[in-house]
Each structure stands twice: as C-alpha cells, then as structure tokens.
Amino acid sequence: MSDTRDLRVAVLGVGVMGADHVDRINRRISGARVTVISDASAERAAEVGASASDAQLVTDPFEAIAVEDVDAVLLATPSAAHAEQALACVNAGKPVLCEKPLATDAEGALEIARREAELGRRLVQVGFMRRFDHEHERLKSLIDAGELGQPLVMHCVHRNPAVPPRCDSATVIWNSVVHEIDATRYLLGEEIMAITVLRPTPSSHAAEGLQDPQLVILETETGRMVDIEVFVTSGVGYEVRTEVVGERGSAMIGLDVGLVRRTDPGRWGGQITPGFLERFGQAYDSEVQRWVDAVRAGGGSGDCVDGPGAWDGYAAAAVCAAGIRSLETWDRIEVDMVPRSTVDASARVEPEQSE
Ligand SMILES: NC(=O)C1=CN([C@@H]2O[C@H](COP(=O)(O)OP(=O)(O)OC[C@H]3O[C@@H](n4cnc5c(N)ncnc54)[C@H](O)[C@@H]3O)[C@@H](O)[C@H]2O)C=CC1
Ligand SMILES: O=C1[C@@H](O)[C@H](O)[C@@H](O)[C@H](O)[C@H]1O
C-alpha cells in the first residue's frame, strides 16, 4: 500500500457502533474510506451501504476480511464474535481495530496476542476509546506529572439509561465494566490483581437475569483500590465519572458541566449526555483517525497500532473472566494472567504508555 492512497477499510457489523464508524471513516476523518461492509443481516448491510456508495456488500465476515483490496478491518460485530474474527485478521496479516472487548474469554484474547507476537508485527488495536477522550487524557497527565501525589483510590460511576433485553449480569462485566478495567490500567499504569463483584439491592427495572446495579472492587498490584458503580438501567442518561484520589489532592472527570443555565422561576441546571455516541464522539474520532494514520504509516510490513493493543485486550479479558467468577461465587477472585514477557510483541511497551 502506498502512503498517499486512502486506506481501504472493511467494516464488519454495522449496527449502532459499526454504522457510526462507517460514517466517521467516510465523512469525519481523513485518509481512509470504507470499501467493504459486512453484516449478518443483509438488510442492515444494504441500509448502511446505501450511505457508503463505494462499498461492496459481503455477507460472510471471513470473506470480507479476505477481500484482496481491503487493507484493514474495523470489527464492530457483537462481542462474542470478536475473537474468531480478530484472529482471522491477524492470520491474514491485516491490521484490525477491534471494538472492545477483544474476546469474551481470556483464552481467546491470549491466542490473538500470542499469534500477533509470533508474526512479530503489531496488528491489533482494541477499541478502548476512553484513552482518546480529552478529559481522560488530562486526568492521566495530571497523575503522571505527580500533581495529585501518589494515587491511592479511584471512584468510578458508569450508568446507562437502558440496555437491550438480552443483557445479563455477565454481559455487564464484559461490555461495560471492561471500560473501567482498561481505564484503571491506563490511568494508574499497573495491572489488576483481584476483583470482587458485589450485589446491591437490585433495581425493579432490571430484567430477570440482570443484577443491576453492581458494585465492583478492583485491586491493583501495588494495592490501590478502585470502586465502580455500574448501573445500566438507570433511566436517566449516560453518566461516566471517574475520580482519582491521591496523597496531595483529587481530580474528577465526567461532570457534564458544559452549559449551566439559570432560568426563572429560580431554577438552574445543565444536561446529561443521552448515550455513549454523544459523550465519547470526540474520543471515537481521535481513536479511528490515529489508527488509520498508524496503519498507513506501518505500510505493508510495520506496526499498525497507536493505542491499546492485544496485550491490553488480553489483560482486560483476564480481569473480566475473574469478575464473572466473582459474580458466580460471590467471592473475591484473584486474576489469572500469564506474565507479559511470555507474549513477546506486547512486552515492548508498558500499559500506561497507551501502546
Ligand atoms: N467503544 C464503545 O463505546 C462501544 C463499543 N461497542 C461494541 O461494539 C460492538 C457492537 O455493538 P453494537 O453496535 O451496540 O451492536 P449492534 O447489535 O447494534 O450491532 C451488531 C451488528 O452486527 C451484526 N452481526 C451479528 N453477528 C454478526 C457476525 N457474526 N458477523 C457480522 N455481523 C454480525 C448484527 O446484525 C448487527 O447489525 C460490541 O462489541 C460492543 O461491545 C458498542 C457500543 C459502544
Ligand atoms: O461500550 C459500550 C457499550 O457496549 C456498553 O453497553 C456501555 O455500558 C458502555 O458505556 C459503552 O461505551
């Protein structure tokens, strides 16, 4: 691939996220265009394809990955399909931006990280977009500059107004808490050693099989603790708040303090973002732009990642797997992870450097 030509991207899975990524690649960022669209629903593929007239529709996701003039793949299929499809990308030598999580079990993620290491070329980026959010970047800079002193504790809130009816308690860990797991590794720059999932009084709005809210406690290797309230049927709006408390002060992000309006009779207030597309729009744009730039810079043989990679996907998957054990057993569970040095390609960069 030449450096001057647009990157030709196949987008797999064009539901909520995939359709937004298609629009982002074709209209909101530069250096890439969508040339293949694939979705299990032919109707949905045609609907999204209508707005991306250059794109060829390919029903089978593995055929889509193999299309010769596809330079790179963006995976936005349901989480359970990621591992097999991401592995197929690596095996085909194609760079892939895989929406989180990289896999819904730790073994699947580890297989991808190991295969990438064998190839000796970084091809896998994982869609932990908070690392590209300006507020998260500022918080990270503050911590790294030592302005809060040594970080001791982190408090997180993650609320969604609603989730699809199929969402169960384990899905909340894989799909929602996985963001705080990655944010912890990114902000504090160390691995998570143990997880405990607690079950407060469930909301009467949660469907059967869904423990909502959940309180999750993470413990890092140096003993810092992170508490996460995850509440996915809040009915209110999309709220993601993070506060880091250090020896010399604290800092919080996600306060929705855009416009604060004062009106009569004696009222004041602002607005809560309705969903992740609005709250993290800037982060998704930066994430995909930087991935496109990295893939183009990598040419046909260099590294193609600028952000969280396969190791980050694996580390998060290992913590999620322990979290699901905790949900089942009601116990504190230690995270079972292979040493980073056994997965060579990823061992080159520390997690806090955002790979
Ligand atoms: N980074 C973020 O903030 C967000 C990430 N996500 C992630 O994006 C992924 C997609 O989520 P949504 O767009 O909300 O789901 P969705 O259900 O809206 O879309 C999934 C699409 O994939 C298609 N599909 C199903 N199985 C497939 C297969 N095996 N191969 C190809 N296509 C298949 C479906 O027909 C559907 O159109 C998930 O992994 C989710 O975790 C979702 C929302 C936000
Ligand atoms: O990734 C996402 C969704 O899949 C998930 O369901 C939400 O809870 C997250 O906030 C969103 O960022």
UniProtKB/TrEMBL annotation:
All copies of domain Gfo/Idh/MocA-like oxidoreductase N-terminal, residue ranges: 7-128
GO molecular function terms listed in the Swiss-Prot or TrEMBL record: inositol 2-dehydrogenase (NAD+) activity; nucleotide binding
Family, similarity comment: Belongs to the Gfo/Idh/MocA family.
Keyword Oxidoreductase in record: yes
Subunit structure: Homotetramer.
Protein's UniProt name: Inositol 2-dehydrogenase
InterPro entries (UniProt xref): Gfo-Idh-MocA_inositol_DH, Gfo/Idh/MocA-like_OxRdtase_C, Gfo/Idh/MocA-like_OxRdtase_N, MI/DCI_dehydrogenase, NAD(P)-bd_dom_sf
Residue span(s) of domain Gfo/Idh/MocA-like oxidoreductase C-terminal: 140-329
Keywords: NAD, Oxidoreductase
Function: Involved in the oxidation of myo-inositol (MI) to 2-keto-myo-inositol (2KMI or 2-inosose).
EC number, as in UniProt: 1.1.1.18
Pfam families registered for this protein in UniProt: GFO_IDH_MocA (PF01408), GFO_IDH_MocA_C (PF02894)
Catalytic reactions on record: myo-inositol + NAD(+) = scyllo-inosose + NADH + H(+)
GO biological process: inositol catabolic process
